[in-house]
């Protein structure tokens, strides 16, 4: 074999290697098993296919169920929806500003269940309920709506930034405690379509 041929063979080898790379990479790019959501009180695994139809194929829910990350945080279109869903499903017991009423306050840094400091914990409490009057809400809210409520509850927070576990370091720097009086318009731009 001449040197020229060797070079050519090496080049072919390289090409073959790069062509076959995607095949090697495949096992890692297989769908991730995602986060495990557990009932806040019993620890039982929650099945997010159960309950109100729809709201399972949005980018927000997919990302959330895969990684536990909530990409709706501070998105005004999602806050608008979350505000309205919270008013109809939660504020009767938890208060208009989540300041606490029949149910505990959700706008401070005290949590009966510390799992609620993470969005997957808060989502699980809403989806599967907790004790007594805090029943499961998966029959009247679909997963996308639950994520919007989570987003609104986080927005209502008035405690210290250091305890806002759900915020990234950058979001903590920009954090301002909630003040009443904010309004959202029907055509807020963002990831969440207006509620029907
Ligand atoms: C019928 C009244 C009622 C409604 C409606 C209700 N809750 Fe509750 N909620 C309660 C009570 C009572 C508790 C305390 C239960 C416990 O400690 O297990 C509670 C507990 C919670 C907790 C746990 C708080 C902590 O400190 O760990 C969260 C989070 C929560 N509710 C969120 C919500 C959200 C969000 C909604 C609306 C989708 C909602 N709740 C609707 C009564 C209610």
UniProtKB/TrEMBL annotation:
Keywords: Electron transport, Heme, Iron, Metal-binding, Methanol utilization, Periplasm, Signal, Transport. It comes from the Bacteria. The keyword Iron applies. It is found in: Periplasm. SUPFAM superfamilies: Cytochrome c. Residues 1-25 form the signal peptide. Residues 77-157 form the Cytochrome c domain. Its main location: periplasm. The keyword Repeat does not apply. NCBIfam families: cytochrome_MoxG (TIGR03872). Electron acceptor for MDH. Acts in methanol oxidation. This is Cytochrome c-L.
């Amino acid at each position: 074999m001449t040197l020229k041929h060797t070079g050519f063979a090496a080049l072919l080898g390289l090409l073959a290697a790069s062509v076959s790379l995607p095949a090697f990479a495949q096992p890692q790019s297989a769908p991730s098993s995602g986060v495990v959501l557990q009932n806040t009180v019993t620890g039982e695994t929650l099945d997010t296919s159960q309950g109100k139809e729809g709201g399972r194929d949005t980018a927000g829910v997919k990302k959330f169920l895969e990684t536990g990350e909530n990409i709706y945080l501070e998105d005004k279109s999602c806050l608008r929806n979350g505000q309205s869903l919270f008013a109809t499903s939660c504020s009767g017991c938890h208060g208009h500003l989540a300041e606490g009423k029949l149910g505990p306050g959700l706008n401070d840094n005290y949590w009966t269940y510390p799992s609620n400091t993470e969005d997957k914990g808060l989502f699980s409490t809403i989806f599967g309920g907790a004790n007594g009057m805090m029943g499961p809400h998966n029959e009247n809210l679909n997963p996308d709506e639950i994520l919007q409520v989570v987003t609104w509850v986080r927005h209502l927070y008035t405690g210290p930034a250091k305890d806002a576990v759900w915020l990234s370091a950058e979001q903590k720097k920009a954090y301002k405690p909630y003040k009443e009086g904010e309004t959202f318009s029907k055509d807020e731009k963002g990831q969440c379509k207006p509620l029907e």
